[in-house]
Design goal:
binds NADPH dihydro-nicotinamide-adenine-dinucleotide phosphate; 7-stranded mixed beta sheet; AGPR; about 350 residues; 2 domains; alpha/beta; 7-stranded parallel beta sheet; binds N-acetyl-L-glutamyl 5-phosphate
């Protein structure tokens, strides 16, 4: 990219991750937002949909068909999965020069059969599925730099892959004994009204869902198996809890012989030394979801279990930032050749 600013479109700007992209990008020094799209809310101003943006001058929400692609360098796609693959296929046909960072699940799985199994229909853009690069910068930075289509990982999976993959690769844990007890805030489900997301049903209670079969398992299987060089099938149970933002994964692991919590901590501290967005706490320290709320950070704690061959690793992110839009901006920075942390320096909102 030259000194001129990159021109950015956000597809799905009237949703939660779209709004979070706007929040981050309006203060990014190297980009201009030139197009914002919506579906039901097309025609409205951003201030009508999200009054917090009223002081800013932003483009009006339009439909995807109304976007002038000749004036766009990079598009973020913050649309529902299933819809996204058709939209991106069409965009590339119209405007092959565009780079895309996709926040949906549509291009994360490299195996067409796995996609069909977990999402219930054949993929509509198989060539693009093969081309897409999995957008976890801490693991795939060099590939992301060269990509035209980046598949941003899911929020639960980001918060599980960051702590677990380096441990599998180092041989520090037994990969057949991975148990992920995951909690999500309500914004993880998007802004569309659903009965199960009413205050009266979410506040003052909690529930597990997708038990034994949540679609993010496919992403975990893919990345853990790749790290281990053989098929790995972790246990993963997500829970919806009464907070607005945040993923909180408590992960139970069995360590390799003689490794222990100290060894696990050493592997993670070494792996993430120098990384801007992953912080490994001192051994024994427990993270709080508020340590990351509003920031692009993942915090990881390593805690001894009572048995010497077991360890508890706790990882937390903000689902809308490192779990979605912040990570997407991190990927945009790599794709466009900007310093990776540009526009992502916010510290968490605490308390
Ligand atoms: N929320 C989260 O924490 C995370 C979400 N993701 C993924 O990111 C994507 C966006 O999620 P999120 O922001 O939460 O979702 P929301 O439901 O909040 O927003 C969806 C957006 O897509 C638009 N839209 C819906 N259907 C269509 C359609 N058929 N054609 C064009 N536009 C459409 C909506 O427009 P309108 O408002 O006008 O209807 C809205 O702008 C999803 O794929 C989600 O799975 C990934 C990681 C974390
Ligand atoms: C609380 C809640 O409902 N969360 C969503 C996950 C959100 C997400 O990460 O969706 P992607 O697959 O697009 O990444 C769910 O469990 O389906």
């Amino acid at each position: 990219m030259t000194d001129s600013k990159a021109r950015i479109a956000i597809l799905g700007a009237s949703g939660y991750t779209g709004a979070e992209l706007v929040r981050l990008l309006v203060r990014h020094p190297r980009v201009d937002i030139v197009a914002l799209t919506a579906d039901r809310k097309a025609g409205q101003s951003m201030a009508e949909v999200f009054p917090q943006f009223a002081p800013l001058s932003l483009p009006t929400l339009i439909t995807i068909d109304e976007v002038d692609w000749s004036s766009v360098d990079l598009a973020f796609c913050a649309l529902p999965h299933g819809t996204t693959q058709q939209v991106i296929k069409r965009v590339f046909e119209t405007a092959p020069h565009i780079k895309i960072v996709d926040l949906s699940a549509d291009f994360r799985l490299t195996d067409a059969g796995a996609y069909e199994q977990w999402y219930g229909h054949p993929h509509q853009a198989l060539e693009l599925q093969q081309e897409a690069v999995y957008g976890l910068a801490e693991l795939y930075r060099d590939d992301i730099r060269k990509a035209r289509l980046v598949a941003n990982p899911g929020c639960y999976t980001t918060t599980a892959i960051l702590p677990v993959v380096p441990l599998i690769e180092a041989g520090a844990i037994e990969p057949d004994h991975i148990v992920i007890d995951a909690k999500s805030g309500v914004t993880g489900a998007g802004r569309s009204a659903k009965e199960s997301l009413l205050f009266s049903e979410v506040a003052d209670g909690m529930n597990a869902y997708g038990v034994g079969g949540h679609r993010h398992m496919a992403e975990l299987d893919q990345e853990f198996s790749k790290a281990a060089g053989r098929t790995i099938v972790p246990s993963f149970t997500p829970h919806l809890i009464p907070m607005s933002r945040g993923i909180y994964n408590t992960i139970y692991l069995k360590t390799g012989a003689g490794v222990g919590a100290e060894g696990v901590h050493r592997v993670l501290a070494d792996f993430y030394r120098g990384e801007a967005f992953v912080h490994v706490l001192p051994l024994g320290q427990v993270p709080h979801s508020r340590f990351v709320k509003g920031s692009n950070m993942a915090f990881i704690g390593v805690i001894k279990d009572r048995a010497p061959d077991r360890v508890i690793v706790i990882a937390t992110t903000d689902n809308l930032v490192k779990g979605a839009s912040g990570q997407a901006v991190q990927n945009m920075n790599l794709v466009l050749g900007f310093p990776e942390a540009t526009g992502l320096e916010q510290i968490a909102l605490f308390p």
